[in-house]
Amino acid sequence: TAGPAAPPRREHAARLRAWVSRVRVDILITAGVACIALVPRVYNLSSYPWAMSGDEGTFAVTALSALRGELSNPFTSGPWGYPSLLFIFQGWLMDLTGETIGGARMLSAVLGTASVVAIYWLTRHHFGRWTGLVAAVIAASFNFHLFWSRDAQNAIAPMLFIPLALLFLDRGLVGRSQIDSLAAGLVIGLAQFFHPSNRILFPMAAAYAVYALLYQRPEHRAELARAVRSLLPNVLWVAAGAIVGHLPLLAYF
Question: Using a CB cutoff of 8 Å and minimum separation of 24, what contacts does 86-89 make?
């Protein structure tokens, strides 16, 4: 009998094709949203903003030091307490796209594009496809979102991880999905490698757990106890994912 690690078989490919057929519209829309967001974030990236600030220069120089092997530990802190893994990723993208101003800004462009997609999916989850598209267009063209998507300081990172975490928290804690709960925890943990302000995701997750417990408004103690028992496994999955994702930083420090 084939176990969990068995090689792919024809039925696996058939299931994959059936899944793609069911969600092909969403795949196409997601790809379209990503393209709409990506183009204005990478176009002439070395020229706009016209001036490269000193803070951007600090990020670019730190990324170059990571690219040249001078900064190799992904679990330390860089300038102003920013996680060092951020600069390693920034350096890799500079290696791919060039040691230029645009190369230094490329990580922000990628994170900003992914942020627009995350905003689309979060809004779609709550309000439907058309409202999600409107939200994506607003985010893709919003001047502050666009600016931080073209700045080497990578302040755009929380604008990706917050909507992504909220999406998985809702699907996991309110929808009682253990897979989505684990995904929420992993997003929260991994977000700590990209920006110090992502620490806000921990109290946000706790607040969402309270919301998931009370949104059905249990009217007496027995209903509340059942809600707690139903929610607890998912909360534990969120906590497990967050611990696993954050553990390298916790262990190092």
Answer: 86/154, 86/157, 86/193, 86/194, 86/195, 87/59, 87/62, 87/63, 88/63
